[in-house]
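Anyone? Bumping this.
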Amino acid sequence: MRPVDLQADQFAGYPPLGRQLVSENLALLRQLPLALAPLFLGEVKAYDWNFPLERREVEVQFKYLHSLTPNQLRSAMAPFSKIILPSIASEIDWVNYPRVFSEYLSAALWSTAQVDKFSAASTEYVNAYRAAYPPDPPPIPRLAIVIVGQGVGEAAFPLFRKLRPHGVHYTNVREDDARKTLFETLARRAGAHPMAYGHWYVDGGEEDVSVPSGITSISYAGLSSLRIAVVEKMRDMGHNSQGPEGVQKMMQALDPSAFPEILSISDPILAHFQLSIFTEGSGTQFYSTTFADWTAHELLRRAQPLTTLVRFAPRQVQRSIDEMILDQQGKVAVDPNGSLLDADMAAYYIWIDQRRLPQSTDACFVVWFEDHQDALMIAPNLLPGTEQTSPTSFANLLKPFA
Amino acid sequence: MAYRWDEQLKNPGTSRREFLRMTLGSCGAFKFGAIASATNLLPRASRKVVVVTFGGGARDEETFTLEGQENIPQLLQNLVPQSTFFTRVVNRGILGHYVATASLATGVYERFDNFAAVCPRNPTVFEYFRKDLGRPATDTWVVAPSNGFNRIGESDNPAYGANFGAGVVLPKQLLAQFLSKEPGTIYQHLLRDNYETPFYSPALAGNNINLHQLAETLQLSLNDFAGHALQITSPDELSVFIAKKIMRQYAPSLLWITLHDMDVAHTGAFSLYIDGIQRSDRLCGTIWQEIQSNPEYAGKTTLFILPDFGRDGDGTVGGNGFQHHRTGDIASRTTWMMVLGHGIRQKVVVDRPVESTDLAPTLGAILGFSPRLAQGFPLAEVV
């Protein structure tokens, strides 16, 4: 099927808000090239379960495309129209399985050496609609707090190496009330600037505190039932010889309704997000450090929060994949030192993810070696690449961002 | 010239090439870009080649940058000073490990599904080697991880194929045979495999080596395995253990070893990825030591070491840094290669970009076969 052949009744399987978007924009969707239409529909299909700022991104695209004259639209779509796809691409049921098409497209682009061409077309398109409708600046500067090194006595390597050139390395932070101060900062910001899915607490172990209202929290321990249930489903799919594509298709079709006793139906947006961490993440099912890293990556990209607090916990030691799949519930030794190295790198990635958000030049980033005096902070008024050895506290450091 | 990490950050415009130049320059007295004919070469019929690929992708950040050097002491201190080092090996093909390794072996960017149990479309160096030079099956071997690599020894090209392929040994498959005799043993960690699609492995097919016979020929016994497996901590160590057995038993003229442990990066655990790199570094030292100490190889062997490609850059949108190789950015497409041993000039750095597909024609030039369908060109600096 080609986009020009789209009919309203083909979208019966879409959730209500997404279906409504399609019906309002069907004429426009019919004009999009095959290399773009299914990808855009993927966003529309997920619209009902998207975070508020993700929804805005979809709405802005429609608004931008509608604002173009026919000639301008043709010109804006030309880079995608030039992508040559095998005829089999149009035979995929991309209305109902847009992400299957996306996987197919990715493979096709690689095998026909059109990846670079497609990347350039996508970048140009995103830049164009964002320039036409720039995102609103956040009401307060963003703050990301990362806590690493739980259970580690002494780090076996120099911490924060990748971050040091960008911020101040504090070597004498008061550690006795540090954790309390960091959590209080999160709670205070959530209270003062309420925003749906705007303040997050992610824990790679068990949640450390009772979470005040206004904060969305998610933890490896708290989601263990879901994690185990997803791995069991994946194992069954693998045993049924579906092949990687088959497994992927079935994983993508998984819905919170498949886990009625585990996932909350009162917050379907959060339930979809929680499930996606295990169905779309790689390694999140087995390693708590990867879980925390990937969750932070996804929520920063998708929810664009004002405040993010991520606390890493020790992951299990390396075992064979088979062992980990078969033994999900057993007591396994942990690797605190390896986990510190995982978290140290993840902290760098969280900073990079935060920098990609609007108004990132105003943002503040903090990473703390838990129960130690080492911390690093990156903020607009701090001199990058410096070290501060005099005694200080988080209460003092975070005052401008509290 | 000493080169500091903080200087690199102060000068972000410093290119990857310049950075590697300076890093390698600090190893002392390197020449850059020189091409000169090697002398005192053995007749081609007497030469041997060992190729070691990292089928896990490794980035400069964790290997040859100042920060990464602590992970590769063997490569950096022992092997690089003896080598001709190519700083820019570009892979323009599909960035999946099996299909990319097959492309290295054919000299053509293969286009098949990375996760399918299929042969390369184009003839491999093993087939050219055997057909052109009339070599027996035992003269070329591949030791590879088992995630699809079982078909890499021979193409489905009708002019080559089954009668000219390499013996492909999948150590995991070999070990599994022994484990079937003793279920529930403690060697499960050596069956760790396929980090990219942990829930699916293609059925093994097309590799017709009789495992029982192979084990007997290599004088492998359960006791032997048991004795060594206790000291072996990873599948790559098992691969090198088997490779050494093959070298001692058959002394093949063309041996290809693919190391895979570092692909654990797909699980997102950075420390495990670093462990994999450090292990690969150590194993490269072990392989070189075996070449030096084995009379069948000493003084007549050229060793090639290269990752099949890199991994995504930290800042690339759409990726998650070291974890995957999905974006096709420069970091994931660009890697390095070192060549050392017989006929190779030491302490030479080659800056010009070369391609993954140049490996097969280079092997052909060294060993005397003609990879006529390959797209690449022999690397003048090492032939």
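Late reply, but here is one note on the structure posted above: Residues 1-14 of chain B have pLDDT under 50 and may be disordered.
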